[in-house]
Amino acid sequence: MFTQRVRPLVAVGFAVAALAFASPSMAIEPVAEPAPSYEDLIARLDALPSTLEAVAVYDAAAARAEQARALPNPSIAYDRENVYGTGPYSGVGNAETTLTINQPLELFGQRSARIQAARSEANVADLRREQARWLVAGRLALAYAQAEAGARRHDLATEALSLTEQDARGVAAMVEQGREAPLRDIQARSEVESARAAVDEAKALRDGAFARLSAIAMLDRPVQAIGASLLDRALGQPGAGDDDPLAVQVAEAELDTASRLVTVEQRRARPDVTAAVGMRRYRETDDEAFTVGIELTVPLFDRNRGGIRAAYAEQRAAEARLIAQKQAVQAERLGAEAALAASNSRTRAADSGVAAAEEAYRLSRIGFEAGRISQLELRSTRTALIASRNAAVDARIARVLAEIDLARLEGRAPFGESK
């Protein structure tokens, strides 16, 4: 049994430890300015570099689609004939001067094929812009969740250090009274040092996670705290829209583009036609006359066979990518939904485990104070409590990862509404 001098020391230690677990917000470090809420960060997606890059790529494709509608420029030719020869043509007195305007004519569907291909490429860029936006949202959600998890693990490590120190003081009191061997005191102090090292490691991981969040979100100044929790946020039901996943839409658009490029290459094998209209002046008689003409290339040597074969090969590659993408998306969606359901169950189980571990530690601490529980049993329940609390954080991170994967497939921001 403890003496009257030892009992208050241990009781106070237990009270402080219980208060620490009952109030996780009690931290040794001063309160830092929290990061913007997750919704505020998502609202800034359009200002992030990766999104701006995707928008710029789309703008370039849209500009090329607009440019594809432009007609080819005409050319102007000026000719003087029958000059500086012999006899009556020794000078320029009998010269014939011709001014001609030549206009290429895009016949045989060449212009329409080019316009449709450019529009299809712009559509692909538009879908990729949307896809890049949600990929950035997923990275942002992951960084936010990891920063919050880092902060929680640091708080848990700090609380674990406080509990270990309180238990060590209790062990020291028992050793002083002859209730425990001096070896137990050495073990307890070693546990305190190990817990203190764990706090330093958790702090380094927390600071690194907050630095990554600040960099990804392009925050003006570093943050070291999370305001609104993302780990504890309830998840809605997965979307059940009839639209194909965004990745499949991109693959389908790429196949459409490849098919239209086949048409473009086929049209290039057809003759190029140029019409000419001009005015000819006869210097000798000072008469004038119109000239008309047409120029037609003859596809005798270059029929663009290599370009057509290459376009067909790229079309086959796009078809294969589409088939693979459909299979992969279906498998990934099933896996993400299963992972989400499993992580929800894991989170509930982890929370129940934390409650059980807290009660077990509370009872063992009472037993230790009364002298009925050994220091080894107390350490075991304390270790189980720390492990269960960290397991609860791990379960929530797994749930966030599953939600990020599902949101990427559905084309939306994590924890947002389905389209």
Which SSEs are present, and which pair or pack?
Elements: H1 6-22, E1 34-35, H2 38-43, H3 49-67, E2 75-81, E3 96-105, H4 110-176, H5 182-216, E4 225-226, H6 246-268, E5 273-282, E6 287-296, H7 305-370, H8 375-410
Parallel strand pairs: 1-4
Antiparallel strand pairs: 2-3, 3-5, 5-6
Keywords: Signal
Protein name: TolC family protein
Signal peptide: 1-27
Determine the mean pLDDT.
Answer: 85
Question: So what's the overall shape?
Answer: rod-shaped
Kindly name the structural category: alpha+beta
Q: CATH top level of the largest domain? A: Mainly Alpha
Q: Could you say what the CATH topology of the largest domain is called?
A: Outer membrane efflux proteins (OEP)
Share of helix, binned: 55-70%
Low-pLDDT runs of 5+ residues are: 1-30
Per CATH, the superfamily of the largest domain is: Outer membrane efflux proteins (OEP)
Strand content: 5-15%
User: How many beta-strand runs?
Assistant: 6
How is the biggest beta sheet arranged? 4 strands, antiparallel
C-alpha termini separation: 66 Å
CATH-defined architecture of the largest domain: Up-down Bundle
How many domains? The number is: 2
Order of helices and strands: HEHHEEHHEHEEHH
**Rg, Å, rounded:** 38 Å
Strand order of the largest sheet: 2-3-5-6
Q: Total helix count?
A: 8
Protein name: TolC family protein
Organism: Luteimonas marina
Keywords: Signal
GO molecular function: efflux transmembrane transporter activity
Write up this protein.
The longest helix is centred in the middle third of the chain and has 67 residues. A four-stranded antiparallel beta sheet has the order 2-3-5-6, with no helix packed on it. It has a two-stranded parallel sheet with strand order 1-4. α4 runs antiparallel to α5, α4 packs antiparallel against α8 and α6 packs antiparallel against α7. It is of the alpha+beta class. β5 and β6 form a beta hairpin. The chain has two domains: 337 residues, Up-down Bundle (Outer membrane efflux proteins (OEP)); 68 residues, Outer membrane efflux proteins (OEP).
